[in-house]
Each structure stands twice: as structure tokens, then as C-alpha cells.
Amino acid sequence: MDKFTLLNGLVMPMDRANVDTDAIIPKQFLKSIKRSGFGPNAFDEWRYLDHGEPGMDNSKRAINPEFVLNQPRYQGAQILLARENFGCGSSREHAPWALEDCGFRVIIAPSFADIFFNNCFKNGLLPIRLDATQVDSLFKAVEAHVGYRLVIDLEKQTVSAPDGTVYPFEVDAFRKHCLLNGLDDIGLTLQHVDEIAAFETQRLTAQPWL
Amino acid sequence: MSAQSLYDKLWNSHLVRQDDDGTALIYIDRQLVHEVTSPQAFEGLRLAKRKPWRIASMLAVPDHNVPTTNRAAGIADPVSRIQVETLDANCAEFGIAEFKMGDIRQGVVHVIGPEQGATLPGMTVVCGDSHTSTHGAFAALAHGIGTSEVEHVMATQCLVAKKSKAMEIRVEGALGRGVSAKDIALAVIGRIGTAGGTGYAIEFTGSTVRALSMEGRMTLCNMAIEAGARAGMIAADDTTFDYLKGRPFAPQGAMWDKAVAEWRNLHSDAGAVFDATVVLDAASIRPQVTWGTSPEMVVTIDGCVPDPATLSPEQREGAERALVYMGLKANTPISEISIDKVFIGSCTNGRIEDMRAAAAVARGKKIAANVMLAMVVPGSGLVKAQAEQEGLDKIFIEAGFEWRDPGCSMCLAMNDDKLAAGERCASTSNRNFEGRQGQGGRTHLVSPEMAAAAAIAGHFVDVSKL
Ligand code: SF4
Questions:
Q1: Nearest to B60 by CA among B99, B21, B90
Q2: pLDDT tens, B333-388?
Q3: Which of A169, B240, B319, B355 has the CA that lies 20 to 30 A from B333?
């Protein structure tokens, strides 16, 4: 997993609530048995005018010029600004994989669905919760200024806007540690092998039907 | 010791270790595996040269990609086929029990776990699928996880987690005629919203919930995730034990008695504290129909499609967009919405009781001329066999329904079963998101009775008045 420390990135706004994982990566692309290559099909149904299927040459498909992801001013964006309940729906980790493959490293929203929120951290993607009013003012600022960027400092837990406003955010200490150091969860857990084995023995002895 | 909630008990009994900031390692008793969210996890194990920690805790089944007709011909779509073959190969390589496509025990992962007794009270159950909340109906702590977590549980038998807040949803009283667990679930979501349960583990309590069958309890817990909660759960009681007794993976003989004695403690103690409580009166719940593109966009069968102008400013824009997508006009009575297709099945409503409820409505009737396709997809091969033994298949077929092989099918349309753009479907599944049942397809979530009645009438009708 890539380390995450400081990011100065272009912001792309996605102004709708309840963006679900089916929208982020439609199910026909879940048939892949790989972890990568989902980027060109992120938001497929909103992004292209035709119906996408795996194996198509996406560079030849007609794009929907209205959709934010296709607007020239947001090309290269690394920060996604979103609304309430982002990532609701299925547990598919293909959603954060697709967003990461598109180049996003940070998502800012007033709220996220739990499983999606969790899945982001496993993939070097930082989901940041800010107040709805703060998110609202960021939406206004992004729309008003072409090339609008934010600086995300994970160590200090701040989002800094060009006008000097600094928005502090909360992040779980363990997840922050993993992200800052690019640590693999499994390796960390396996440091506790003895504890797990002891727990398991005791549990299976007490409840042998398990 | 102070009074504990069911969630407290389940959490505490699986806590391997906990750091000062609350980050915990939770021991996992059961991991269910399906073809869509596991290939990358198996690949991760291989790359890191790791082995699954406890193979006996795993049970695998292909469900999302399998065809529901002409199984003998195999899977036509090469991409789907590779995914299912990859699961078969991974299970063979690591020695994991799998119910393959030709096995009568194959079916939707959340139907087969309980059906086999692989889901037991007091367990922690995970699966790379958000509707794992279903298994909480057995007083288990069950929730969906992502693929990295699937790999993590395979490798360590543990999950890194933080304790959620606890919410009690209490439903009291007798349900009215034609009102089922599905209607309770939709009514709850209509009340608290799709994010209402975010950050919570929900326990469903109250006399109405206690009176539900296991099938009904599973339907309710299944939809907890649509209310934003990763886990839904219900206390264990005689209904739970009667359902499980004699199932292949359940303990037998003296072990069974020992287990039941243990399981009797799996309920919230009197005086247990919840961070939030929601109370519903069962008598006030009417058959529900969703009108929009989120499960919270729901009204009763006697209601009308809402007028966005009357909604709060936050809801208005979403409602306007949903009406455009759904091709509906504000203030249209729900009973005037005609449908093109019907889907009865899924991990929400693909169990034997659902088949019986739908068949009771369809018996001796014919589907309406405007209904192009009405399909019944049993949740598992065993549900299918049981239904056939009871003659339900004949009732459906005579009424004009198609009787299919088990799988997820048109719940998410990863196989060939899908809606075409603009088609309107009465569906017993759990999600009505844009494109869920096929690009441009329009989904209305309902109970099995309501779906069968809509198939017969060609539009939504009030089953409580039939
Ligand atoms: S039936 Fe539908 S919701 Fe259930 S596991 Fe299958 S796809 Fe998911």
C-alpha cells in the first residue's frame, strides 16, 4: 500500500447525495478477478453515453461531456468532494479500487457508508468527514475557481484551503498510523499470532461445535 | 456486572485484544465466500505465501454469476465463467468446502449459510458481501466486509474492528393482513433513512419480531444494511433452535443440548443500554412499495408518488432526479403504476416461506397481459426442491411465472437476467439503485405477496385487501 502523508491536489466536485457503489463501479465490471484496471470504468453509466461492458475499448466510447469527470477543468483531480452517504450499497472493494485507479487519494464528504469508509483505508485512499456546512462552502469555492486545490496534511489532520481556512478532521489513530506508514494490516495482525491462537484454543474448547 | 445488550455479549465474547484507542481484533467463527469478492483475496494470500488460518471455518458458493436456466450448458458469458472457475480452483487449491453450481446445496450465500446450519447463534460471521447482516437473525454478529478484509480474515481468522454504537429497533404488536417482514424492513428504512443506521449495530426487538419465523427475521436483518447498519441482529429463542435442529453443520446429540444451553443467554439483558431506540407499532405498518432509487424512497400501497415540492430542500433534488429516472409523475397513486416484469427471489426473499407466500397469491390466477416476464428464483437448490415437493412450482408455472434455478439473478443482474432500459419491475430484492437490475431499469421493492399480486394485476395492488 502506498504511504499517505501530504497531498496538494486538484479538487473535483460530485454534487449528489447517496452516490452508491453500483454507480461508482457498475456490477458488470466486478467480473474481473484482478485488483487493478477499474479506473476507466469508474462511474461508467454517468461517464459514457453508451452501455459499458468489460473488454470494450473505452477510448473509443462516446463520453458524456456534462459529467464532471469528463470536464477539462477537473482532469488530474486527486481529491473528490462529495455529499452525504457517499459509497452506500454493496461491500465491493472494487469501488475504492476504481477511484484510486482514477487517481483519487482523498474523498471529502459529510458522511460515508461504513463498509466503503473502511475499504478506503485498506487501499491508501483517505476518506475525510467534514461538517455539511464546511462541505457546502467547499462546493461553492470549487465551482467558483478553476484549478481549485486543497492541501491535505494527514499528520496534522487538516484540510487547508487557498483562502487560508484550515479545516481540522478526525481520523482513527490506528488507521492514520497504517496510512502514514503504508502498512499492511495482515502483517500487523500477525504480530499477535500467539494471542489469536490462545484465544482460538480456549474458544474451541468451550464451544466445540464451532 | 451491568446489563449487557446482545451486541455487547457478541462483541465481548470475540475480543482477542483491544488497543487503548478502541481498535480491536475480533475473532471470526465463520467466513462465507463467493466468487465476486474473493479472487483478489486468494491472490493476495498466494502472493504473500500465506495459508488460510482455519479452513474449517470457511464455506464457499458461487451465486452472483450463475445462470438460472439451462445449467447443464454451463455459463455462456466467458467473463462470468472465469470468475466461477476461479472460485472452484481456489477452493480446490486451499481445500475449502464449496457447493458448486451443480450441487443441490448451491444457492445465494446468505440463504445457504443458515440452511446448512453453518450460521449458528453466538458466532461472528463475515462475508465479502454487504447483506451478510442477514445472519444476525440467529443472534450472531454478522457483517459484510471488503476484499482486503476477506484476505485478512483468511490469513488471521480475525478482523480489525472498532465497536459500533448500538441501536434498538423495537416493533410491538400484531402485523396486519398481507404485511410481512419485508414491509417492516422498508417501513424502518422509510423512518430512519438509508444512513440512519450508519455507525450502529441494530438489534430488532419486540413482540412482532419475536413472532416472526426465522425466514422473516432473516429478511429483516438482511435489510439492516439498507438502513446503513453493517449488522442487524435478533435474540436467540426456541424459533431459532427449532430452525437449526438437525441441520448438517449444526451440533448434534449431547453437543446440541450443550450449545442450546449456551445460546439461551444470547439476548439483551433487561436494562441494557442502547445509544438510540426507535419504536414502531406493527399495526400501523401497511404493505410498502418503493417509488424511487433509494430504499428510503418508500410509501405505502395506498399512498402516492410524492411531490418533490413538498419535501425538504435536502430531499428535493434527489427526489426530482429519482422521478425522472423512474419515469414517474408526482402524486400518481402507487396502485396506478403498471409493471413490465416481476422478480421474486434474492437473499432478502428467496426462502421457502417467501415462495409459499407468493404462491398463495398466484394460486389459480394468471399473470396480466402487460407483464412480459415474471420470474421466481429460489434462494437455493434445497429451497427449490422443497417448493417442488409442495407443488409450488406448478402453481407458479400455471399462473405464467418462470420457475428458475437458484442464484442472485436479477437482484443485481450480473448474469443474463436483467431489465432493459425503461422496464419497470416489481422486485422482492433489496436495492432499487439506478441500474441495479439492468441499465435504465426501474425497480420497485416490495414483499413476495405484493410482487405476486402485481404480476397478476399488472400493476401494484393492496394485498391486504385481496
Ligand atoms: S441476492 Fe442480491 S443482495 Fe443478495 S447476495 Fe445476491 S446480489 Fe447480493
A1: B99
A2: 999 999 999 999 999 999 999 999 999 999 999 999 999 999 999 999 999 999 99
A3: B355
Residue predicted with more confidence, B288 or B21: B288
B259 to chain A, minimum CA–CA distance in Å? Answer: 7
What's the longest Cα–Cα distance across chain B? 64
CB spacing of A93 vs B147 below 8 angstroms: yes
Q: What is the pLDDT of residue B2?
A: 86
Instruction: Decide whether any atom of ligand 1 lies within 6 Å of the B219 Cβ.
Output: no
Chain B neighbors of A122, CB-CB under 8 A:
146, 148-149
Q: What is the pLDDT of residue B21?
A: 87
State pLDDT tens for residues B298-347. 999 999 999 999 998 888 999 999 999 999 999 999 999 999 999 999 99
Distance B331 CA to ligand 1 centre (A): 32
Give the C-alpha separation, B425 to B448, whole Å: 13
pLDDT at B59 over 80: yes
Q: How far apart are CA A73 and CA B288, in angstroms?
A: 44
Q: Do B82 and A31 touch (CB under 8 A)?
A: yes
Q: In what helix (H) or strand (E) does residue A185 lie, and over which residues does it extend? A: helix A185-189
Q: Is B226 in the pocket of ligand 1 (CB under 6 A)?
A: no
Q: How confident is the model at residue B1 (pLDDT cuts 50, 70, 90)?
A: low
The bridge status of strand A158-160 relative to strand A149-153 is antiparallel
Query: If DSSP states are collapsed to H, E and C, what string results for B352-398?
Result: HHHHHHHHHHHCCCCCCCCCCEEEECCCEHHHHHHHHHCCHHHHHHH
Contacts A174 to B, Cβ<8 Å: 19, 21, 23, 160
Q: Establish how many alpha carbons lie within 13 A of residue B22's alpha carbon, considering only the half-sphere containing its beta carbon.
A: 7
Question: Which of A85, A123, A209 lies at the smallest CB-CB distance from B195?
Answer: A85
Three-class SS state of B409: helix
pTM of structure: 0.92
A6 and A152 in contact (C-beta within 8 Å)?
yes
The answer on pLDDT for B198 being more than 90 is yes
Is pLDDT of B415 > 90?
no
CB contact under 8 A, A32 and B433: no
> A19, A88, A202: which to substitute to probe chain B, counting the most B Cβ within 10 Å?
A88
User: A118-160: per-residue pLDDT in tens?
Assistant: 999 988 899 999 999 999 999 999 999 999 999 999 999 999 9
Residue B72: pLDDT band (50, 70, 90) is confident
Is B436 a pocket residue for ligand 1 (Cβ < 6 Å)? Answer: no
SS3 A98: helix
Smallest Cβ distance to B414: which of A30, A35, A113?
Answer: A30
Q: Amino acid letter at B195?
A: A
Sheet strands (E) in B106-247: 124-127, 141-144, 158-161, 165-172, 200-205, 231-233
Decide: B119 in ligand 1 pocket, CB within 6 A: no
Regarding the beta carbon of B66 and ligand 1, being less than 6 Å apart is answered no
